[in-house]
Design goal:
The structure holds 2 protein chains of 2 kinds. By secondary structure, chain A is an all-alpha fold. Chain A has helices at residues 2-24, 26-48, 80-116, 118-132, 136-147, 151-178, 181-188, 193-204, 206-229, 241-248, 257-284. The longest helix of chain A is centred in the middle third of the chain and has 37 residues, at 80-116. Chain B has helices at 3-30, 35-40, 46-56, 62-76, 89-124, 129-143, 146-160, 176-210, 213-220, 225-262, 268-278, 281-309. Classes of the chains: A mainly alpha, B mainly alpha.
Amino acid sequence: MAKAASTSSSSASTFKEFLRRAMRHRLLMMGTGIILLLVLVALLGAQLAPYDPNMMDFAVRFAAPSFEHPFGTDEFGRDVFTRVLHGAAVSVRVAFIAVLISGTIGVLLGALAGFYGGWIDEIIMRFMDILFAFPAVLLAITVMAILGRGVGNAMIAIAIVYIPIFARVARGAVLSVRGRDFVTAARALGRGNGRIIFQHILPNALGPILVQTSLSLAFAILAEAALSFFGLGTQPPDPSWGRMLSEGRAFLRQAWWMGVFPGLAIMLSVMGFNFFGDGLRDVLDPRMKTRT
Amino acid sequence: MNLNYLLRRLVTLLLVLFGVSLLTFAIVPLVPGSPARIRLGIQATPETVAALETQLGLDRPLPTQYLDWISGIVLRFDFGSSLITDRPVTGEVARRLPATLQLALVALLIGLAIALPAGILAALKPGSFQDVTAMVFSQLGVSVPDFWMGILLIVLFAEVLGWLPSSGFVSITEGILPWLRHIVLPAMTAGLISGAIMTRFVRSAMLEVLGQDYIRTARAKGLHERRIINKHALRNASISIATIVGLQMATLLSAIVVVEIIFAWPGLGSLALSATLQRDYPMLQASVLLFATAFAVVNLLTDLSYALLDPSVSYG
């Protein structure tokens, strides 16, 4: 017990040191800010929105951005600002669930492969290689072809695409800590493999996994938008940024706002997760600093 | 790089391709409904559907079907017939392959034309205005949705300015200029994005080389800065840059799928989506299989070139 207490106090000071460095990192802080804003909008957007997302008002079709309609209106007179706010919830939900699924499965597979090595490693990683051999978008489209359209299936498709990346990151991280003294010590104490993996190895491999999680969230938002844009993901009339872009595409000449604001929303969200992931990598591993 | 490593990688490639073919084959048994039903439509009687299933060999055990399917592809490049038009898939694929290859190549060239100067200039003066500009551009390129950028380029250059066609493909045999006018927007979309990603890698490869002792020695020796960059830095950075190009080819292929769809480019990527929407599974299988094969081969070549170019990396 005394040992546990001393570890936690030393890890607390490491955590403080980490926070200090994190607070000074501009990119990381910007990413954190954007992500917080996005999550806030996703949670409260429906309450904040001035209109009903599906309410059609033909008196104000194609209205330019104004005080009443900050982002203008679409071909049915629906308020674009409201639909962008509602779209945040769709994007965030799909991205988080998809990454949760792929992260859980990928990390588990990668940890098993890295920890046991041998034929378990071979089988798991060769299977990951096979999934990795498909271009991301094409794999997602193929999975959608099998499962059928819909936002739930889009989550599964996106999750499958990113499993091999998580597996590789987790395997690499596990390999790098597997031979360290604290793992040997845990083994010498007679700890079971499951406990060694979950209590000793994975917590120490958390950094790279967190970085990958953030970068994958960025990809997942892009992928959801793309699948919905192709008509495979979110189905009408639900507002989703990708759908709004595909609906607005035909009217961009007379109503640029229909295509610009949903696109900006996607870009800003993706940027937030990219900033956060890159910043986190810098802070966790100062040697890999990209800025000089 | 030893022969052992090369052989092992080739065996791995074959295993991966075998797995890819299994997964691609599995599309048809996994989707609900029978391909025969898709081809005949909903009015067809169960008897005619069953007859067509027998004719297509769909009533045989799956392993037999797989062997038949894969041997047709490997031996005769025969992917079966479209469920929609009933015409051979191979002809359609062969018609579309050149369009995809041309687009990928031009996009890669555009990407390099952006990334090499931008990355090198950024690395020469870290923290300077040119560095920050290059990094902001890179970050924007990584975050911008490719399909959105495609739409914006279409609106600007095709609809508002009217300088370029918004979609379609013209063969190069019909004249360089019409070909160029059609390919420039889709290739720009994919090229800008992959250029943005590559800029980062070129910059860090350059930075790494510029921090080496021999650069300091060259400077101490009083060599002209231009000569240091051209003769010492660029030449050494080119190893990692070559690897980046290979890795980017793989990412680029993924972007190409999206760009083809946006610009109605008659390649394999747009074929995959239209086949999915029409439930034309043999067509989907062919485009997926070809893309994945190209992807796996490019990945292998990248790894091999890395092992070849960098003698300090040894592979057991």
